[in-house]
Protein 1
Amino acid sequence: MLIKIPYKTEKIFPSDVKGKYAYMKDTVIIIRNQSKVLYIDCAHCNLANYKPPSFLSNYIFEYEIMEGGEYCECIAKTLQEQLKPLFRNPKLCKDEDVTVVIER
Protein backbone atom coordinates (compact mmCIF):
# COMPACT_ATOMS: atom_id res chain seq x y z
CA MET A 1 0.00 0.00 0.00
CA LEU A 2 1.26 3.49 -0.85
CA ILE A 3 0.51 6.41 1.45
CA LYS A 4 1.26 9.96 0.33
CA ILE A 5 1.15 12.71 2.93
CA PRO A 6 2.26 16.35 3.06
CA TYR A 7 4.95 17.36 5.56
CA LYS A 8 2.97 19.79 7.72
CA THR A 9 4.19 20.09 11.28
CA GLU A 10 3.43 22.41 14.16
CA LYS A 11 6.17 23.34 16.62
CA ILE A 12 5.26 23.41 20.30
CA PHE A 13 7.10 23.08 23.57
CA PRO A 14 6.14 20.15 25.82
CA SER A 15 4.75 22.60 28.38
CA ASP A 16 2.40 24.05 25.71
CA VAL A 17 0.47 20.81 25.14
CA LYS A 18 -2.94 22.27 25.94
CA GLY A 19 -6.24 22.84 24.22
CA LYS A 20 -6.58 21.15 20.86
CA TYR A 21 -3.11 19.57 21.10
CA ALA A 22 -3.92 17.75 24.33
CA TYR A 23 -6.58 15.60 22.67
CA MET A 24 -4.72 14.72 19.46
CA LYS A 25 -4.42 10.97 18.90
CA ASP A 26 -2.29 8.95 16.46
CA THR A 27 0.30 11.69 16.27
CA VAL A 28 3.84 11.59 14.92
CA ILE A 29 6.17 13.42 17.30
CA ILE A 30 9.53 14.73 16.15
CA ILE A 31 11.59 15.71 19.19
CA ARG A 32 14.28 18.22 18.30
CA ASN A 33 16.50 20.88 19.78
CA GLN A 34 17.74 23.92 17.89
CA SER A 35 20.32 22.08 15.82
CA LYS A 36 19.39 18.39 15.58
CA VAL A 37 16.52 15.95 15.51
CA LEU A 38 16.84 13.90 18.69
CA TYR A 39 14.10 11.27 18.46
CA ILE A 40 10.99 10.38 16.46
CA ASP A 41 8.04 8.66 18.09
CA CYS A 42 4.35 7.97 17.61
CA ALA A 43 1.65 8.60 20.24
CA HIS A 44 -1.55 6.58 19.89
CA CYS A 45 -3.05 7.95 23.11
CA ASN A 46 -3.82 11.59 23.82
CA LEU A 47 -0.80 13.82 23.30
CA ALA A 48 -1.23 15.18 26.83
CA ASN A 49 -0.44 11.69 28.16
CA TYR A 50 2.74 11.29 26.08
CA LYS A 51 5.97 11.11 28.06
CA PRO A 52 9.26 11.43 26.15
CA PRO A 53 11.87 8.72 26.78
CA SER A 54 13.89 9.18 29.96
CA PHE A 55 17.23 9.38 28.14
CA LEU A 56 16.14 12.75 26.72
CA SER A 57 15.81 14.32 30.18
CA ASN A 58 19.20 16.09 29.84
CA TYR A 59 18.14 17.92 26.68
CA ILE A 60 16.05 21.02 26.12
CA PHE A 61 13.76 20.22 23.23
CA GLU A 62 10.55 21.04 21.44
CA TYR A 63 7.99 18.90 19.64
CA GLU A 64 7.11 19.02 15.98
CA ILE A 65 3.79 17.25 15.77
CA MET A 66 2.04 15.90 12.72
CA GLU A 67 -1.21 14.00 12.36
CA GLY A 68 -0.44 10.45 11.35
CA GLY A 69 -3.74 8.63 11.41
CA GLU A 70 -3.90 4.87 11.25
CA TYR A 71 -0.37 4.48 9.88
CA CYS A 72 1.46 6.92 12.15
CA GLU A 73 4.17 4.37 13.00
CA CYS A 74 5.01 3.85 9.32
CA ILE A 75 5.09 7.60 8.75
CA ALA A 76 7.40 7.99 11.75
CA LYS A 77 9.71 5.27 10.40
CA THR A 78 9.97 7.02 7.03
CA LEU A 79 10.72 10.32 8.75
CA GLN A 80 13.36 8.57 10.85
CA GLU A 81 15.07 7.34 7.67
CA GLN A 82 15.00 10.82 6.13
CA LEU A 83 15.85 13.00 9.14
CA LYS A 84 18.42 10.68 10.79
CA PRO A 85 17.80 11.45 14.48
CA LEU A 86 20.48 11.22 17.15
CA PHE A 87 18.63 8.34 18.87
CA ARG A 88 16.84 5.77 16.72
CA ASN A 89 13.49 4.27 17.69
CA PRO A 90 13.49 0.49 17.05
CA LYS A 91 9.74 0.11 17.85
CA LEU A 92 8.47 1.82 14.71
CA CYS A 93 6.56 0.16 11.84
CA LYS A 94 7.31 -3.51 11.22
CA ASP A 95 4.85 -3.72 8.30
CA GLU A 96 6.85 -3.99 5.08
CA ASP A 97 3.73 -3.74 2.87
CA VAL A 98 3.23 -0.05 3.60
CA THR A 99 5.25 2.52 1.66
CA VAL A 100 5.08 6.15 2.76
CA VAL A 101 5.92 9.11 0.52
CA ILE A 102 6.30 12.44 2.28
CA GLU A 103 5.76 15.53 0.12
CA ARG A 104 7.94 18.48 1.05
Protein 2
Amino acid sequence: MAIPLSMQERVYPVYAGPFDPCPPILCKTYVVPPHLFLGFQPPNLPQFSLPEALKQGTLWPALSSSYCPQERGGN
Protein backbone atom coordinates (compact mmCIF):
# COMPACT_ATOMS: atom_id res chain seq x y z
CA MET A 1 0.00 0.00 0.00
CA ALA A 2 3.04 2.28 0.09
CA ILE A 3 3.04 4.99 -2.55
CA PRO A 4 5.91 4.52 -5.02
CA LEU A 5 8.55 7.23 -5.20
CA SER A 6 7.72 7.92 -8.85
CA MET A 7 4.26 9.17 -7.78
CA GLN A 8 5.76 11.27 -4.98
CA GLU A 9 8.24 13.15 -7.20
CA ARG A 10 7.29 16.49 -8.70
CA VAL A 11 9.21 18.43 -11.34
CA TYR A 12 9.14 22.17 -11.88
CA PRO A 13 10.88 24.37 -14.48
CA VAL A 14 13.37 26.92 -13.23
CA TYR A 15 13.62 30.36 -14.80
CA ALA A 16 16.94 30.89 -16.56
CA GLY A 17 17.67 34.54 -17.15
CA PRO A 18 19.53 35.66 -20.26
CA PHE A 19 22.38 37.14 -18.19
CA ASP A 20 22.89 34.28 -15.70
CA PRO A 21 26.65 33.68 -15.30
CA CYS A 22 26.33 29.90 -14.84
CA PRO A 23 24.76 27.23 -17.04
CA PRO A 24 21.14 26.88 -15.95
CA ILE A 25 19.55 23.90 -14.27
CA LEU A 26 16.35 23.72 -16.31
CA CYS A 27 14.33 21.32 -14.13
CA LYS A 28 14.37 20.69 -10.40
CA THR A 29 12.58 17.96 -8.50
CA TYR A 30 11.13 17.63 -5.02
CA VAL A 31 9.36 14.85 -3.15
CA VAL A 32 5.84 15.18 -1.77
CA PRO A 33 5.38 13.37 1.58
CA PRO A 34 3.10 10.32 1.37
CA HIS A 35 0.73 11.55 4.11
CA LEU A 36 -0.58 14.19 1.68
CA PHE A 37 -2.14 11.42 -0.44
CA LEU A 38 -4.31 10.20 2.46
CA GLY A 39 -7.41 12.25 3.17
CA PHE A 40 -7.88 10.54 6.54
CA GLN A 41 -6.31 7.66 8.43
CA PRO A 42 -8.32 4.53 7.64
CA PRO A 43 -8.96 2.14 10.52
CA ASN A 44 -6.87 -1.02 10.89
CA LEU A 45 -3.87 0.14 8.86
CA PRO A 46 -1.08 -2.46 8.91
CA GLN A 47 1.81 -1.56 11.19
CA PHE A 48 5.55 -2.17 11.18
CA SER A 49 7.13 -4.01 14.09
CA LEU A 50 8.63 -1.61 16.64
CA PRO A 51 12.29 -2.03 15.54
CA GLU A 52 11.27 -1.65 11.87
CA ALA A 53 9.12 1.40 12.71
CA LEU A 54 12.13 3.08 14.34
CA LYS A 55 14.22 2.36 11.25
CA GLN A 56 11.52 3.60 8.83
CA GLY A 57 10.57 6.65 10.89
CA THR A 58 6.86 5.80 10.89
CA LEU A 59 4.60 3.13 12.33
CA TRP A 60 2.52 2.62 9.18
CA PRO A 61 3.88 1.29 5.86
CA ALA A 62 1.40 3.50 3.96
CA LEU A 63 3.21 6.58 5.33
CA SER A 64 6.77 5.44 4.67
CA SER A 65 8.72 6.92 1.79
CA SER A 66 11.67 5.46 -0.07
CA TYR A 67 13.19 8.94 -0.43
CA CYS A 68 16.82 9.04 0.64
CA PRO A 69 18.52 12.46 0.54
CA GLN A 70 22.02 10.93 0.40
CA GLU A 71 21.24 9.14 -2.89
CA ARG A 72 19.50 12.10 -4.56
CA GLY A 73 22.27 14.59 -3.94
CA GLY A 74 19.95 17.17 -2.38
CA ASN A 75 19.02 19.01 -5.58
